[in-house]
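Entry 12.
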Amino acid sequence: MVMVASAQRRGGNRTSNSEKPLLPFADDRRKNGLVDNKKKWGFTLAMVAVMGGAFYISDPNTWNLNSSGDALAFAYTPAAMEDNRFKARKLTDYHDICIVGAGLSGAVIAERYASQRNQTSLIIERRDHIAGNCYDFIDEETGIRVSKYGAHLFHTYYDRVWDYVQKFSDWTPYEHEVIGLVNGKLVPIPVNIETVNTLFDQNIKNSEEMDKWLATEQEKYPNGPQNSEEMAMSRVGKRLYELIFYPYTIKQWAKEPKELGPEVTARIPVRNNFDGRYFADPHQALPSKGYTAIFEKMFDNPLISIHLNTDFFEVRPTLKCGKFYYTGPVDRYFADTGLKKLEYRSIDFERKVIKNVDYFQPRSVVNYPAASDNFTRIVEYKHLLNQTSKDTILFYERSKDTGEPYYPVPNPENKALFLKYKEMSDKEPGVSFVGRLANYKYFNMDQTIENALTLFDDDRVSTDLIVNYCDGDLKFIAEWQSKNSFNHTYVYSTCGKTVKGLDSKKVNVIALAKDTDASLAHMLRKDLTFGSQNVFVHGKTALTAAQVKTSLTKIAANKVFVDYAKLPFESCETSSCSRNLYPETEFMATHEAIKRYVSVNTGKALRGKL
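Predicted 3D structure (tokens):
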């Protein structure tokens, strides 16, 4: 009989005992019974029979080995074994993934590795809260939910992103509309038919008439627009440019539009109809309970540890990580190289409460392009999610050079400088640079999520098949390898017989001493890459070719994700092995090097035998 490891997974991310709890919601979660410090996250692991010819597939994510193979420990005799992933971990403990920044990019990466690969993540956040610039909270004076770093409106064309965010919140449909005060008149922004009719006393009735009017206004550039001034003039003409685009750009960027790349004004739509929506994406909504609640749910996994008020650069020498994801400013990461700093724009927020009034302005956002107003816009959060309060709260926004970095400044000098940083970041070993600040590029929220999802996919593309073999023809392995997209196949022969039927150019054949554990031998290899997934087919004694083929076929047919199971594989229905929860994992046991149970001494002893 072979006992199968079973994890009772509960929600709830953990911070180390020396760190402050997550702010601001940790206290509320305790009141609601969602956090109980008296409970210890546990992982109940059954006895594993590795003697007497028992065959098993091992999920290497239940082990603990750093990428260099230095922290091995394996219990060769049946014993109760504890999975340290589900215990509170210190900052200095080993983590599969270390992430700098608790914003959108970091949250997606951590959530994916925890839910898809059962891997531990350490998130290091300089601020005293999660959620990055999406962080929102209830204003104590008015009871209105506001955003600390400016209004965030979710919209996307990506079906994958829309499906993904549904996992973490209910969403309230919301189509954002912005108006601007121009020449003393409130007009729709982006420019549409109503904007033109109001400002220029026109009577345009349809798209055809609007196209004709725009054609008479637009400037032509034979080589295409080369900067933001030319981009705006090519789309709306000189009059609208001077009324709206020019003064607003000066206030927002403190630069002439002709000094900025064309992408700055290209981001602002121009409509040839009466559509007053700011975005045209098919998916537009607001999280019904705010953005911070989304992050709380994304981090609600005991495999994710968060350390707030922590500077990555101060603690980096003490960290033990399989891989790093960096979401901060790329120039700060390479600050010791002596390169000039990249330029960013920040925002100053002036809070103002108006008592005993329903609303101050007709929309949640009103822009003020005119140079006579010393702010760029006013945001009234009461409009969002139809909030109720006897008062209202406003935030006046002013752009500035210093403070939290919000917007990369896309002029030729900064673009050229970033390419130098990009060259260094591409060569930085073991670190992926993800998100807006690390890529010096403005991302909308959906683009940030898509970027992180894609990066996660790219970092787990390698799939290896490991077979502990003794006798028989393995020619079927080549077909299996191709059909199931295995990047590498390793066949370990542990009984001294010749391996038949394999192409040595496609399959790695390794002869081991008799009775050597093939799984540990594989994990001690120095050429393993981060992020590979492994399918192990082996046991205390080696398998015949027939047993290998039968086992692989049944694993694929059942499409299961297994911690430990008896081979030849029959069924998971009556055992406690984990059923596959995510279609993309199919039948493969995931891997980040075989990790957790092994004493360092055993690892050293095994290396001596190899």
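Annotation: The first strand starts at residue 55 and ends at 56. The two ends are 30 Å apart (CA to CA).
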